[in-house]
Amino acid sequence: MACSSCTTGKDGQPKGCKSNGTCGTDSCNKLTVFDWLSNMSLPNGEKPFDWVEVRFKNGRKIYYKNSENLTLSIGDVVATQAQSGHDVGMVTLTGELVRIQMKRKNVSIDDPEAQKIYRKASQKDIDIWSTARDKEEPMKVRARQFAISLKLQMKISDIEFQGDGSKATFYYTAEDRVDFRELIKVFAKEFRTRIEMKQVGFRQEAARLGGIGSCGRELCCSTWLTDFRSVSTSAARYQQLSLNPQKLAGQCGKLKCCLNYELETYLDALKDFPKSDVKLITEKGKAVCQKTDIFNRHLWFAYEGEWMNWYKLTVDQANEIIALNTQNKKGQSLEDYAEDLKEDTKVEFENVVGQDSLTRFDSPKGNNKRKNNRNRNKRKSPNNAK
Prior knowledge:
alpha+beta; GMP Synthetase, Chain A, domain 3; 5-stranded antiparallel beta sheet; 4-stranded antiparallel beta sheet; 12 strands
């Protein structure tokens, strides 16, 4: 149950990176948690936490109770309890970090109906599971054809077989509610197995399937992001990004989750900035904000009717004029404030090459002219003519 680049050994253990999260493809780095307590021993008399985290296809994780006291470590393939039959998954976390993860995800430790781990997966379990996994891709193609023929407004994005091959879960996305009762009958007749339909959101679909984002890295939702917070266009406005849907949308078609990463920093930097709709009343007239530079803390204003002439002010200068306006006083003209911010735009270049000239390998043009003149004179001389 390793990724494609590691392959699987005889006992089900991954070869290659052995699920340490360094191969960079499929299962080895799907929503992994760094076990920073792995090199620490428990205090005397303390029993290890008897719950483990097991991951299945495409980042689906469930917490199981190790009631049989099996010696499990990260990367072990185990047979786990299911509603009917058993499932096969890989242990991704053990020890005290599982307690923290369960508390974070609101999973109760004292649940009497908690699912259990049966045993470490045998070679027979792995063979059955591998055979079932090989059926998923051709089944997905056929399932999409059936959904199109029934004219259902849905997209079947993924299929996951249970470890014992007794049930197939079809994950689909849809804008509205879909009546798929007839579709289930067609699936059961065609695939000869128990069918379960599960609707997921567009962000969850992208997390399951994975992909490469516009930044050139794997999608955050498929590698480490688990909580999907709402993203609005105001986040792009605060960060002064162009409101281009094609650039702001992610793999899922929704706004990118990374728009929220630096939003709090921008909001903190904009606290003392005047609002963009506030007009500055000066001796020359009213001025309107045209542009804001958050990093350099500069604003550009233009007089009403003179939109082509912009004047650069600092945040303190703009707030000073606003304070005067609140006292029914007019500030100085923008030209007076802009004079103080005039910068020397002259660029001084340094000789980074050293003493060498950039044209040192070029043939000197003057010497060639002299040689040509000498050759001409030799031809014209009377001695050569004799």
